[in-house]
Queue: 2 jobs
Job 1
Amino acid sequence: MTAATETDRALVDRVAKGDRAAVRLLFMRHHARVYRFVARQTGSEMMADDIANEVFLELWKQAPGFEGRSEVSTWLLGIARFKALSSLRKKKEDWIDDDAAAEIADGADTPEVVTMKEDKAAALRRMINALPEEHRTVIDLAYYHGQSVTEIGEVLDIPVATVKTRMFYARKKLGEALKAAGYDRGWP
Amino acid sequence: MSAAEKMSRRDEMETLLPFYLNGSLEGAELEAVEEWLASDPAALAALGEAEAEFSGTAAANEAIRPPADALSRFTRALDAEAGPARKPAGQSWFAKVFGQLTAMPAGVAWAAAAALLALVLVQSFERPGGKGNDFEVAGAQDDLAKLPFALVKFKADAKMSDIAGFLGQNGLKIAGGPTADGIFHVTVPAETAADYDKLVSLIAAQPFAEAVIQGRKPADGG
């Protein structure tokens, strides 16, 4: 066995046969990303902790039914997304993007002053965090989780065209925010 | 091409750039982006901006730190779940000995496992002509949540003295395990992804290594 290259799918096959060690290996490979994805979705690391655990328990239960039509990472993120939305609905919480935006707007410094105090990289990171949830999520899934347009559509259960539209507006908003902060990048 | 058409094309290319950067673009869209990058002077600057977004998004995500004890808590939850009965996995002496430990609470089991490893190690030192190679069991001073690691399973006929010598010579530490399948969590003292790859390949090349699975790599990602 060349386990250094043992694929996620091979591990899922082992999980489907009741191999608990394989699910722990998948946990070690993917937990951090699933945890971060849920934390970004819910705005709560406590919820992320619970939900990320549930995602891998779900993997344990659902592995026999995994058909391999998508990457394991995409499958896990899809489960995570579903569970995050369900938990948020139960708690009747609002998305945090408005709160995050308000937090920035209500700070002691004006956005211009805040921007003067930070470099472009830090400003960009702050602006990404302040994007509306639906825009930030496609940014996260593409840049951090390495998902394709089709895979993002699967995770979010939206059409490919919608993924592109959200990506377009997400990047447009980042460009506008950067421009407002004095970092003109020439687009949009 | 009209200004409106040119803008529309620019919008389309800007939309695809994140997917070009993450390597998921293919077919006609990949060709279109590559053609744009090769032909439009503004494209390379746009690519630079997308790369900055890439870094910013990675930094924003990496700033979120999962709890260090997540795996142990998940393992407890998993153990409580019903599922297909797993056959005894390890036929090696490792698996046989440590199999008994897995029935204990995690902390006790690892303490016992570490003690056993230490005992075997001491015995190897006392063997006449022993090389005296040493390895360590990662302790509290190591921040395990941050250290690069690999998952290693040793062959059924693995000799503890060979393993101990190799671990000691390469600064590798056993940080956890074995799982029920005899898999150990081994910290890898690498500062770069390239060093990590080198060490993991070295482990995999050892005659006593049955399986090596990459875990956390150093931050440069490689």
Job 2
Amino acid sequence: MLVTTALITGLGLGSMYGLLALGFHVTYSVSATVNFAQGSSMMLGAVFAYVFTVRLGLPLFASVLISLSLCAAYGALVELLAVRPFARRGSNAWLMATVALGIVADNTVLFTFGKEPRGFQMAWAQGGVDVAGVHVSYLQIVIPAVGLLFAFLLSFFSNKTRQGKAMLAVVQNPEAARLMGINVPVVICGAYALSTAFAGAGGILIAPLFNVNADMGTVFGLKAFAVAILGGIGSAWGVMLAGLLFGVVEALITSFLGSTYTQILTFALVIVALALKPNGLFGKAEVKKV
Amino acid sequence: MFKRIVFLVVGILAAFPAFSQETIKIGLVTALSGQSAAAGEAITRGLQIAIDELNTAGGVLGRKFELVRRDDEATPAKGVLAARELVFKEKVTVLFGGLDTPVSVAIVPIMNEAKVPFMGPWAAGTPITKNGANPNFVFRVSAVDEIVDKAMLQYAQKNFNTKKPGMILINNPWGQSNEAGLKAALGAKGITAAGIEKFEGSDVDVVPQLTRLKAAGADTLFLVGNVGPSAQVVKSLDRMGWKVPIVSHWGPAGGRFTELAGPSAPSVHFVQTYSFFGNQRPVGTKVLKMLMAKYPDIKSAGDVTAAVGVANAYDAMHLVALAIKSAGSTDGEKLREGFYKIGSYDGLIKSYKSPFTPDNHDAINENDYVWTQFINNEILPVGMKK
């Protein structure tokens, strides 16, 4: 019973971390930069969907489409305002600039959306099925399914398609990629839009299980970054699997040792894993050919 | 010409006593944004209603009251900064605290050092008033964890025949304070807890912790957490399909619990110091009328969200005014003594008689608690409406 419960909880939460961490993977793969405020992007997805569905009364499907488009637009804005100006000059200030932009987003939502957490119920997400005597809500099945689907699509796109390979070429040698006809700025900007849309999808999926509020993404963003590094940020499957592993380990520790030890042991294990495999569990050592 | 103008200005000022006397500044450091914002607004409303009433009656010592608020964002560091500003720059006579025990605990040493009275209208952490300082400048008109914990056990035993309770507590100083209080309450009755589990405010799924408690044979849950986290516990119980009595501290009262927790929200029975529902004494009827007149969003008792914040702050402000009157001064040290000299006051929560003594800085005790539940969006005494 304890194991089944822990596995179900862990896989649901883990795929959430993985989904967010995929966003780190996408931008890192094409530009060697990331949006450190990925948690804010997740929050935006949930807030947009809540506003369009609950306050404006749009059908859920339309709300999700509009919300993800707005998240993508926000991602492009992050790249234009907080990454490009610094990365272009070889500065690492984008680290701080993305965090700052996330704080701006969180506070803008706080003062426009409202201060209170709001409940976002979706009728279809209320039900569930019984697995081995444990009740599993539909969302706990949908979230891992969406996460794995995104990981598969990303992996397929970057390894099997011409456009995907072109995107990966950008990070290896931007100048050569430009000479080969690849529009480098557009590719990087697109990667940020995709990354933020992933996070937004995560936010929409988690909202019915949690609630919608301006700082809902902070802890998720932090754990997702740990997951991205743990999995090996260059591998889509690695990141997703690390997310699932992180979630399951977290839930197993809580179930068997008690919640007092969850954070201590989970993050200690991350350090041990990285000490043993510095490039992440599923990552490869970067080889720079000169 | 210049002399004429000076005489004119002095003459005009003398004609208006309000200008000739400085106001008595009452500071408030509470969450005005974030998850606890509704609680901050409730405290503000309670204080403002009392201040309006006192000012209409002419104020105290010939001076009127003025409320100065700062947002602590439920963060101790920001609360400390705001408290310093209000005490040392704004020179407030009394500082009121907010909902969050960690913030109040961080502010307490500053107030004892500055010798300015600190009044708690909400945060229930035991160490806020029992802080070990001598002299102690901290007073409270609110529930106290160690007393609430005894009351929770008493209520559970009486209503659910509880023999083996499990604790599910938020992982912060408020949770710790209640863990100690609940252990002591259980120990005093020779009961052992089935288990003690902690959870984070950001936890989406509390099923693993609850599964441990269920496996350990818990027959009742003692819940301590603010509105959002408490709702996560209820939703997790729903997912597990575990129907178990839940006796809670007052966290659910701080926001839209029914919206967040879903259809099982009424299963949580939680403590309050006041309810605007049911038979009201004349003070209750008067305060509700004043609230409806001042705040257009309040059309009935059900719209007074976080009634405890309003009620505690209202009574606390009147007690502060009585303390200033008794002390005959706004000097911090004299005012501290003034709190001990308050005789009787017919307040909203109860009729107070010598509410503060050198050994007791808490004006509310277990006899003043009301047990409530959310029915739709209203906090009603348990069993009043199904």
